[in-house]
Amino acid sequence: MLNLSRRSIGVFMRLSRAPILMQIENGRTPKAKYLHDLTYHGQELSFNEAKNIIIQYLESSGSVDLEKDVNGIAKIRLNNPRCMNAINAKMMSDLEEITEKLSQWTECKGAIVYGADGNFCAGGDLNFAKKISNPYGGYAMNIYLGHILNKFKKLPIITVAYIEGAGAIGGGAEITTACDYRLMCNAADSTVIGFPHSKMGIVPAWGSTGRLVSIVGVRKTLDLLLESRLLRAAEAMDSGLVDGTVTTMADAEAWLSRKIKGDLNVIRAIKSTVMCYNDSLETARMMESRIFAPLWGGTAHNAALEQHLKHNK
């Protein structure tokens, strides 16, 4: 057995509690190992500062498209088919613009988020992720898209994610948590939803951890994040993560239409009052940002990025 003096024990305890202050300048990844304090201690960023960092990486490919229905339903399409609609900086910027447009569309009752070419979203674009694979870039991305999704979640309309094809994986699953409801297509048994972030050496960002807890509870959230399993429709419904199954996009529209058949002002008032009880999630989201940042660009994350990028070549 190891014998330590009281003085040695005291020194050891002080060292084990000491946070590792990460000096992050110019986007460089620190060499410190995050053994004791898994929180970000770098430069604070406002939403606009974070936005200015992310939009430096706008690409010509990929978009998020908005279609306004005469019945007050918005259709929001994640459109980046070359990588199963994975999210890049351009798409983040488009989603910000669309969210602002929806906040001003006073006749809107509901919205459906779906993916182009029969797939929902495979997560974050790995090429984009590689460009900002350091804690500073991760923190900026978290602040930027987390704010956008939080604003989208608070819109006074009823929102549905229609998940089909390969499904909603990683960042794609995170986006679904910003919707009020999630529907999975039952036309193919291969459609899944899941949070395999731990396999990428990170935790969820964009505010989804707090939203996930509010959807399925603490224990099921732990299971989903620790096990990184991808759930098919039946299991996702059993867990409470998904609210129903449909066969086509038209079925998803009909499903939403039944929810929003009432008076426009009453529907918007119901959503607004419900969201009043959700404000504490903003505090959780900011803590999530601090925990996420040092993992982004860390040893495990960079190794996973390299491995997945090689698989995609």
UniProtKB/TrEMBL annotation:
Per its UniProt entry, which superkingdom is the organism in?
Eukaryota
Q: Which UniProt keywords apply?
A: Lyase
SUPFAM superfamilies, A to Z: ClpP/crotonase (SSF52096)
Q: Which InterPro entries does the annotation name?
A: ClpP/crotonase-like_dom_sf, Enoyl-CoA_hydra/iso
Q: Where is the signal peptide?
A: none
GO molecular function (one) = lyase activity
Q: Which GO terms describe its biological process?
A: fatty acid beta-oxidation
Cellular component GO terms, alphabetically? cytosol
- What protein does this entry describe? Ethylmalonyl-CoA decarboxylase
Q: Which organism is it from?
A: Aphis glycines (Soybean aphid)
Lineage, opening ranks: Eukaryota, Metazoa, Ecdysozoa, Arthropoda, Hexapoda
